[in-house]
Specification:
346 residues; alpha+beta; 12 helices; single chain; 9-stranded antiparallel beta sheet
Length: 346
Amino acid sequence: MSSLEFDTAALHAPISPSAPAPPADDAIHGSAAEELSVRRLFIRVVFQVLGFGALAAIVVMFVQMIFGGDGMNILTWIIAAFMVAPFVISQIVAFGSRRREIADIAYRLPRFAADNRMSHVAAEPAAQHPVTRFRAGGPLAIRDLLSSPERSGLEAGTYYYERSMGRSMVEHSATYVALDLPTAVPSMTVATKLGDVWSQQSTRQKAQHPVSIDPDFDAHVRVYCEPQDDDAVRRQLTPPVREALREVAGRCDVEVDGGRIHVIARKALPFAEPAFWRWVGDIGALVSVLSRPDAPVPAETASGWRSRDAEREALFAAPRSGRGFAIGVLFIVLGLVAAAVITATT
């Protein structure tokens, strides 16, 4: 069974201290350079200080008044600043960490692409993408677009787009992998039910409607297609194909249309991690299964997928934020206790 294999040596080789800086892409809305703008960080921090600081000052003032204080004073603002400090510091630390991460990617990915006969574009303005998921949003940019027409039309990138939420626009990102299909497959959208609760909901083409495949499969995904394709989609999604989809792309949305398959994560995935490219190789094997729906999955392929279960789980895991949140809550509690104690003893 065919699959995609990649030379990942460039992803973990030492970084040369004399490596040239990557070219700036500041003119591209949604690019990494825009994300790492110091001006943008300054504006974000100022808004946090003003917004959260004012809210913290009001809460502190109420605590002071409960314990006999006369209202807002200089101590109110000192305690409020103490309560807000962890959130401001976390923004600055995250900015520095993200800067190092993007510099690392900018060094490694072009070398990885050259080793694997792929082209690499750090960022390009995103036109409306053919994937339904992105059509409802405003395109910003595609970052780290890697492609290789000679390798089954492989294309991988992270699409940055924005959607309206109430009266504001919220930015989203989603990594996708696209491949050509060697045989005709009916158009369909397979939307996972396993995305985290904060992710943007999947979409489907207007002409598509839900179609039931199998009770167990339907419990994990929603399948959509045009009414005239119902039977063809059911024939395509045989037990081997259903199992392969759940194993390899269980946390992704999948769109099949125009002779291509798009596997879409509901988050940005780390292109500089070898685990990501092993997952892309597994998608190549998934395409082979989808193209031969009645053939059993070879034991070696299925065993390889299962052996990488933990690796895929880590790849799609939500970032850990418990420690930072706990520290922020601790500072808030300490601030309110200090306001109560100082007010009561003076």
